[in-house]
Every structure is written in structure tokens, then in C-alpha cells.
Amino acid sequence: MARLELDSVTKRFGEGDGSVLAVDDVDVDIADGEFLVLVGPSGCGKSTTLRMVAGLESITDGEIRLDGDRMNEQGPAERDIAMVFQSYALYPHMTVRQNMRFGLEESTDLSDEEMDGRVDETAELLDITELLDRKPGALSGGQRQRVALGRAIVREPKAFLMDEPLSNLDAKLRSQMRTELQQLQADLDTTTVYVTHDQTEAMTMGDRIAILDAGELQQVATPLEAYHRPANQFVAGFIGEPSMNFIDCATEDATLVDGGFRYPLGDEVGEAVADAADVTLGIRPEDLSVDASADASGGDAAGDHAFDATVTVVEPMGDENVVHLSLADGPELVATVNGLRRIESGTDVIVSIPENAIHVFDGDSGDALHNRSLDDAELDDARV
Q1: CA separation for the pair 366, 224 (Å, rounded)
Q2: Which of 17, 50, 314, 335 could bond 288 through an S-S bridge, CB–CB 3.0 to 4.6 Å?
Q3: Which of 282, 288, 259 is nearest to 269 (CA)?
Q4: What does each C-alpha distance from 270 to 87, 283, 307, 356, 359 come to in angstroms?
């Protein structure tokens, strides 16, 4: 177990005008025993960051430390780190036992009995004891993934690095392996850095998540903090499925305006956005309220934050319906409603956007000017 520190880590490929800045001044402090997930879209620099930690890529600038010891000049074999690759990287001509032993044979002075003992213990932990005499070609994808994990675990490293290890599995097995990996990491209590482009994996697995975009670190936070208190519009749009709704607006006398769409703000939110001429209003799909239209209900729209809309598409998901809406005054929104609720395309409805659930982002920088009302006590209770 160890503390892993990335201090202003930068990676540039090439030189001069043709160089590419892949990772730009990344700072992350990973605590002893923590499970940190690096997440972001393809090409954001997350795998390059992981490869620099492993020693597979050189560092252009900055410093990487493991338990306070600088690792920049150390080769991969000198770092007490084990890596699990996306492709599994198993030797096809070796049995499972031989694959798991190989790293120990090359990097330790353990006796054959000690190596076999570690392999047997790890195989039992991963429930692959009956596979030890098989070769990778005779294994399923999930079994190969367990062998790749076992090969890393037997080394008893200070830290694990995992580069999208579940991406080759089908959806059901991927979900199962997510749970197993979480339990395994908790049992081993080993510092782990996990790379994925899948925000569902990031939200469900990490103690904290580090979100990257175009090589730049956008936010490091717990999953709930990133979801409810995004640092900027990129994080807000990337975390969550379906994505947060965004409406580009101008500010006019404490009112957000987009064509015929007008959203008056209370004093607190109005003060937070007062200095911005252009902003983006954000609202999570689950925070939208979709009700029968005034014509159907015989009532009136409920206040200044309710708008006439038409249902354009309904996606039944079982537990919920994803409802696509077109507001009468222009913006398109997506809402989620209870899966047992019957709602059809073409239906006229009233959509309410509660002010206590909105986010507002600066139109130029994308930085969060205001996040939804949620105090620390609510986030703490959610962790229990």
C-alpha cells in the first residue's frame, strides 16, 4: 500500500510546432488504499497518464512520487506497481499458473514453493483454481480477465494500475466484474488507479474520480460531488446518463432569456450570475417535472418556472421512461419519469424546472457560477 502523487505531470509528444500536448499539468494526490478512477472521452490523456505512472511513457515535465520517492527516472521493472491491460496480455503458450508465476520468476527471489503458494492463494481469491492448468485459448473473456488480475495480485505491489480492463466484456459480465473488482480492491486495500471512458464505471467504482478533457484535469471529487456539484459545464455534461440539459441564455434583469424562453431567478441565483452577460442553464433530466397540460388538467401552468411542451420521443427503459420534449418557446429537453407511467409521443404537457435544482455556467469559460441546492449533510448521508 502506498500514497501516489502526480505533481504537475505533463506529457508532450514531438518537438517544436508539430508537438502534441497530451497531458497538461495534472495534479492528483491519491491516498494510501484509495480507488481513484481516471475518466474522460477518448483521447483525453487518461491512458497516457496511467502509462507515465507505470513507466511506459517518459514524463516531459512534473514529478510522480510513490510513498514520497520520485519515480521519474525509474524503469517499469523498478517500480513496485502492477498493471492490468485492456487486452489482458496473457501468454497464449503458457498455462494460467505459468502466466501468473511469470512476473514473480522475473522480478523476485522467491522459491518455487513460495511462488506456487502465492498463485494458489490468489487463484482461490479469484475463484479460478480449476483453471490453473488451462491455457488462455480455453478461457472465456471473464476468466481471462480474472487471470490478468491474478497475475497482478500475486506480485503484492504497492499500487495497481488498470487500463480499461472491462471494455472487452459484454454488458452483463462487465456489470458483474465491476462489483467483483470493487470487493477485491476493498479486500486487498491496495492503492488503485483505474482508467475508463465509461462514466457509469467511474460513478459506481471510484472512491474519487478525476475527470480529464483534452489533457487537462477538470475536477477531482467523489462521484456524488462531481454529479451534484460539477466544476464546469464539461463535467456536468459528461457525468450522468442521460446527460444534463443545457439552455444557452442571456441575462436580463435577473432573468435568463433564450428567444421566447424566459426563466426568472431568485435573489441568491440572480446574485451569483449577475456579472455574466451570457450563461448556460443546466438541469438534470430527473429533476424535471412532467405533468398533464393545462388543457388536459383544466388548470394553469404552475408559476414562472413551468412551460408548455410537446412530447416528441419516449424511450421505455423499464424502471424509467426517457422523455424527449420540445418546449413551445424553442429549447429541447430530456426528462426521466417513472417507468410505470404511461406517456406517449405527441402529448402536450407542462414541464417544470425547479430553481432549487438548476445549475448555471458561465457562457464563455464554462465554469460553474451556481450549482443546485445541496448541502454537505445531504452528501454525507448519501455515503452511508
Answers
A1: 20
A2: 335
A3: 282
A4: 51, 16, 20, 13, 12
The Cα 36–Cα 34 span in angstroms is: 6
* DSSP codes, 362-374: ETTT-BEEE--S-
Report strand pairing: 191-196 vs 159-163: parallel
Query: In one letter, which amino acid is 72?
Result: N
Query: Alpha carbon of 302 to those of 78, 283, 284, 319: distances in Å?
Result: 65, 18, 19, 27
243-383 CATH fold: OB fold (Dihydrolipoamide Acetyltransferase, E2P) (2.40.50)
Phi, psi of 122 (to 5 degrees): -70, -40
Q: Report pLDDT digits (tens) over 295-333.
A: 544 444 457 899 999 999 999 999 999 999 999 877 899
Q: Is the pTM of this model over 0.70?
A: yes
Residue 206 to residue 281: CA distance in whole angstroms = 28
3-state SS class at 99: helix
Q: Decide which of 3.40.50.720, 3.40.50.300, 3.40.1670.10, 3.40.630.30 is the CATH code for 4-233.
A: 3.40.50.300
In the chain, the N- to C-terminal Cα span, in Å, equals 25
- pLDDT tens digits for 247-301? 999 999 889 999 889 999 999 899 888 888 899 999 999 999 999 875 544 444 4
